[in-house]
Structure formats: C-alpha cells, structure tokens
Amino acid sequence: MSYVFKLMDSPVGQLKLIAKGAQLVAILWEDDRPDRVRLGPMSEASHSPILDDTERQLTEYFAGRRTRFELDLAFEGTAFQKQVWDALLTIPFGETRSYSDIAAQIGNPKAVRAVGAANGRNPISIIAPCHRVIGAAGHLTGFAGGLEAKAILLAVESVDTITVTAGSSGKRIRKAAHADAHPGQLSLY
C-alpha cells in the first residue's frame, strides 16, 4: 500500500498530511528536514477520507473548537520511539510535560536525551502533541516546526502569553481573549 498526501494551510504554515490506507502516518511541516521522517514514495490524494477528516479536525483545533483528536494513527518507528509517541498522546490539552516527565512515564527515567531524540522524530506532529513537551525549566526547546510554531500551538491551547526566544524572531504570541475577538484568534506582536 502506498502513501498519499494532502497539503493544508494553517496558522503554523502549510502542513503535509500523509496517510497509508485508512490511517494517518504523518503530519510534516512546510520546512521539514527531508530525513526527519522517512517514508516511501507518495502521491497527492485525489480522495482520502482519513486526510479529509484530519484536515477538518485540525481546522477545528486551530479555531478553538476541538481539544481532542479522533483519528486512526499508524506510527512508523522503533519500539522505543513508539513508546515515547504513545506517551505524548496522554498529555492533556492545555498541559505540558518535560522530557524527564516522559522518560519517567515510560519507565526509563535516565533516557531523557533519547526521549528528546524520539520526540524530535515524531511523525504525527500536533496530533501526537510533541509541542506540549518543554524543557525542565519551563522553556520552549527544539521543535521540528520551529519554536514560533510551538508557541503558537501552545497559545491555541491557553490564554497565556508566550515569549519565543533562543534563535527565533523574539515575537510574542498571544491568544486573543477579549470580548470582540474571534474564538481561537492568535496575534503576533
């Protein structure tokens, strides 16, 4: 069975949604490294119910109308990576965890760096919420989609202001919380 994809515009840039059969296998970033997620040849989907459903649910998420995804996922990776990615799926909407929290959760508290590496190779970004994993001191750390995208995703899930630093544009990202704001509206300033 071959891979099919669909492109989707979003507040964090263009996303490449990829399926194999009736399962979602990847969501890749516009400027993703070609070797970060290794998949076989793929073609653009003319019709794919799983990709259409993924796009609909992501659109609802970005609009502030969805806090949980209901999609059939198929992670492709090592047993350790899959264990980390499964742990990501347990992080509740609007909450964060550290890499050491994830390492402890999977029963391997000394594997913090390995957890970070697996997190960086998470093929199903946003759905398996690797953006909810932050540094032990509470800072935003590496993210395949870029730290600004990570901050935007965290802002979608809260009303707090997040400052993006360390190699980013230094912009502040805030979810609009005033009465005349469109629900889920994000602003950069």
Shape: globular
User: How many angstroms separate the termini?
Assistant: 45 Å
Which regions contain 5 or more consecutive residues with pLDDT less than 50?
161-189
Specify the helix fraction band.
25-40%
What letter string, H or E per element, gives the SSE order? EEEEHHEHHEHEEE
Determine the structural class based on helices, strands and strand pairing: alpha/beta
Largest sheet: 4 strands, mixed
Order of strands, main sheet, comes to 3-2-1-4
Can you characterise this structure?
The structure is a single chain. This protein has 189 residues and is α/β, with parallel strands linked by helices. It has a domain at 3-62. The protein is built from five helices and nine strands, in the order ββββααβααβαβββ. The protein has helices at residues 49-62, 79-88, 99-105, 112-120, 147-156; strands spanning 3-8, 15-20, 23-29, 42-44, 97-98, 133-134, 162-163, 172-175, 186-188. The strands form three sheets. Strands 3-2-1-4 form a four-stranded mixed sheet, covered by helices on one side. A three-stranded antiparallel sheet has the order 7-8-9, with helices on one face. It has a two-stranded parallel ribbon with strand order 5-6. Strand 2 (15-20) and strand 3 form a beta hairpin. Helix 3 (99-105) packs across helix 4. Mean pLDDT is 83; it is low at 161-189.
